[in-house]
DUF4136 domain-containing protein
Amino acid sequence: MAHRLLRDTVLPILLLLAGIAGCASSTQILGSWKSPEIEAQEYRQVVVAALTDNVLARQEVENDLQAQLQSRGIEATRSIDLFPPSTASKSGPDVNLLMERIKSNGHDAILTAALVDEQTETRYVPGSMGYRPMTRYMWYGSFRGYYTFWYPTLYDPGYYTENKVYYLETNLYDVASDRLVWSAQSKSYSPRNLRKAASQFAEVTVQKMTEDNVLPSVVAQ
């Protein structure tokens, strides 16, 4: 499974990792899973890999995941540094070569992020009634004047708006056993800014890993 996910190029996550301006949190963790078969251990050297062929998105996501892990005393390496983007192959680097390099560099875990689905949600925005105190203006002198002035402002109709919802899957693999250790699903609404989105996604994801006792709870100073 790990080899397949590392090999495949999935849907670009440039649009996924973004926030709605003014919202406290546009990225939410929907659920997580932790393998009961693998003994708990402290991972100290982790490779972070954003599985996308969009170079900008890959850099932003891996940068922020790296920063979040390093803040917890974990040595993190970006996959883009191990295997820079290449136009020679659309299927990505050879997975066996990739695993050999990861092991030879002493890494003990791989953290991947990939877009798995996107949907459109329709939301109704209610309208509002207009009201103003009575005043002695000329349009009150006749029905025609009153009607012409007020009718367009009496009611502001509601409308429907569509928001894109993107679903992301984050997996942690144990290098030695090549087994899935931890997995989480998250969603993000109406992307606008990649920089802020990548930062928020990384923060929410690593915090969830901490809560699930996959990572140290004490942030390194």
